[in-house]
Each structure stands twice: as structure tokens, then as C-alpha cells.
Amino acid sequence: MSFWDQLKQNASNFNTSLQTSISKFKNNDFANASMAICALIAAADGSIDANERQKTSDLILSNETLKIFPASELREKFNFYCDKLSQDFNFGKIEAIQAIAKLNQKQDQGRAIIQIAIIIGGADGNFDKDEKKVVKEACHAVGINPQEFDL
């Protein structure tokens, strides 16, 4: 099985697994962290163009796992992190990683946002090196070994 086929299968398995357990994650820290990682995926190459931002936003809003949160709330949080990253990528990245790191003591929630990042990053058929790097950094922020996700 090729890496991409394996990634798609893993993303599908992640999504199914998340849908069954995500309701217990309905809290502000999880919502912030999930939108922070999505914004980091969109900005993984150092910038976010309007098209990429819109595509990521559409993926977020269509993701069954994240439907436990009101769409307007997710959009607001996603735009907040995208704006921070667009204004000053390095400081925006620090703020996004800090939001993700709040899940450090909540390993199940940390794994869930990593899974969301992999699903969002691979949705376009190309989970590139910049996206993988961001996901690895998020793994470290929540205290999870990136190798657990073949990163």
C-alpha cells in the first residue's frame, strides 16, 4: 500500500474514531486548538492566500467531527488564527501553538486535534512536508510522539 493510500485510510479511520468520541471534547480549549491547528495547516508554507483559507474553512465546516460546535464559532476562531498568522507568521504561530499546548494534559483531546490536522492536511491529496512539519510541532506541543502518526 502506498504512503498516500495508507494516509487516506488512516484519515478515514481517524474520522470514524473521532466521530464516536468527539462529543466528550466539547469545550473551548478543544475548539480553539482545533481551529489553531487548521489555521497552521492552511499557513504551513508561511502564508495563507484567500483561496487556501476558503478551502480550509469549507473543509472545517463540512467535517462531521467538528459539527459539535456551531459553525459561526468555528469560523470566528479559524479566522482569528488565520489573521494572526497573516499579520505576523512567527508570532501567530506561537499563539496557535500555545492554544494547542493547552491540551497537553488531555492526551485524548491532543490526539484528536492531531487527527483533525492530518485529515485537513491530506484532504487535497497532498499532505506536503510543510504540513507534516506543522503537525509534528503540534504533536510536541501536546506531548505526543509524532511517530505515533507516522510523521
Topology of helices and strands:
Blueprint: H1 3-21, H2 28-42, H3 50-62, H4 71-87, H5 89-101, H6 107-122, H7 129-141
Helix pairs in contact: 1-6, 2-3, 2-4, 2-5, 2-6, 2-7, 3-4, 4-5, 5-7, 6-7
Distinctive features:
TerB-like, 70% helix, 0% strand
Largest sheet: none
Q: In CATH's first tier, which class applies?
A: Mainly Alpha
Cα shape: globular
Helix content: over 70%
Provide the gyration radius in Å.
14 Å
Classify the beta-strand content into a percent band: under 5%
Low-confidence stretches: none
Query: What is the second-level CATH architecture?
Result: Orthogonal Bundle
**CATH topology (level 3) name:** TerB-like
Judged by helices, strands and strand pairing, the structural class is mainly alpha
The count of domains is 1
The end-to-end span amounts to 17 Å
Structure characterization notes:
The protein is an all-alpha fold and 151 residues long. It has helices at residues 3-21, 28-42, 50-62, 71-87, 89-101, 107-122, 129-141. Helix 6 packs antiparallel against helix 7 (129-141). The chain has a single domain (27-144), classed as TerB-like, CATH 1.10.3680. 70% of the residues lie in helices and 0% in strands.
Short description:
The protein is mainly alpha-helical and 151 residues long. It has helices at residues 3-21, 28-42, 50-62, 71-87, 89-101, 107-122, 129-141. It is built from seven helices and no strands.
